[in-house]
Design brief:
Helix content is 32%, strand content 24%. The chain is α+β, with helices and mostly antiparallel strands. Helix 3 packs antiparallel against helix 4.
Length: 156
Amino acid sequence: MRLYHSSNVVVEQPDINHSRKYLDFGRGFYLTSLYEQAVRYAQRFKRRGQSAWLNTYDLSEDIECWNVKRFDTYDKSWLDFVAQCRDGNDVGDYDMVIGGIANDRVIITLDRYFSGEISQEEALGLLRFEQPNIQYCIRSERMLQECLTYIESRQL
């Protein structure tokens, strides 16, 4: 499967160590299968006056033997998981987490929920209308080394 990672640098050797804490699915190497989403995300680097690179990888199709957590919708389990990870608690011992990205519209709802402005039920009610843009977060170095193959980097 072809996956993309936007960055301000070429990333031939991805690792977990450069990941920030408090992200949707915790510390890990984040990718997307959606080319257009990756290109849009890279534009944030250009807006900051930095270089924008689209790094391309191949993910092995054989991931059934790995500990993978998948979220197919923005539901209570996704919301609870993201809330804990964004609070600095990497939930579970997963090699990879797959699920919806907190895009601009979703992040507004999450911020309102995390601040206590709206309840969990209200947040879920707003999120049910959103179609997830899928992200892949590889959280183990071993899976990065064994399942992800660098293909190329293209400056945007």
